[in-house]
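Hi all, posting the design record for the shared folder.

TITLE: backbone redesign
STEP: 1 of 1
STRUCTURE INPUT:
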């Protein structure tokens, strides 16, 4: 709440130059990051300033870790419905801190029932990433520069009967996948 934020802000001013400010500013940034998009931007700016001012402190990792958490590019892809052969597939994409999403669909089997015996462990799924794509595309995502999670839809054209894996890759080359 605002009273707590005012107390933290006053304490940060009082202890300016003392490493205690690292912990205070990290807590202020944590609180701000849970509010609005504008507050998340303020949190990131506060963390960057604190890291700059106290970069040689042994405690600076508290700020650095939160800054990484808030600014790391991420992408998550899913489908909100059961899909049928040759029917368009609406893919729901949630993302933060990234400008593009590359979609790649790989066929695992002609038999959709393969899913029943398929291990969805990331190691098993990721071994298919190098396979030839049966469909792919790139989506330009609006970057609001607010460090918040946003979402959009991408419509993949219908695919013949079969078992598929959909991969999504962000600017940071982090790969997310799910099965169809």
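Okay, here is what came back for every position:
SEQUENCE:
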């Amino acid at each position: 709440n605002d009273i707590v934020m005012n107390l933290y802000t006053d304490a940060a001013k009082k202890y300016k130059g003392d490493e205690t400010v690292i912990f205070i500013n990290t807590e202020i940034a944590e609180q701000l990051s849970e509010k609005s998009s504008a507050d998340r931007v303020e949190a990131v700016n506060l963390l960057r300033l604190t890291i700059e001012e106290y970069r040689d402190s042994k405690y600076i990792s508290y700020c650095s870790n939160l800054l990484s958490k808030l600014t790391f590019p991420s992408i998550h892809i899913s489908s909100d419905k059961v899909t049928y052969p040759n029917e368009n597939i609406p893919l729901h994409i949630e993302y933060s801190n990234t400008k593009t999403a590359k979609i790649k669909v790989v066929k695992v089997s002609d038999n959709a029932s393969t899913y029943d015996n398929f291990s969805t462990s990331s190691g098993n799924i990721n071994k298919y990433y190098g396979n030839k794509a049966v469909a792919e595309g790139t989506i330009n995502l609006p970057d609001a520069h607010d460090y918040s999670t946003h979402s959009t839809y991408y419509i993949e054209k219908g695919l013949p009967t079969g078992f598929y894996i959909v991969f999504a890759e962000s600017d940071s080359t982090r790969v997310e996948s799910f099965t169809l």
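COMMENT: The chain has a mean pLDDT of 85.
Let me know if anyone wants the other runs.
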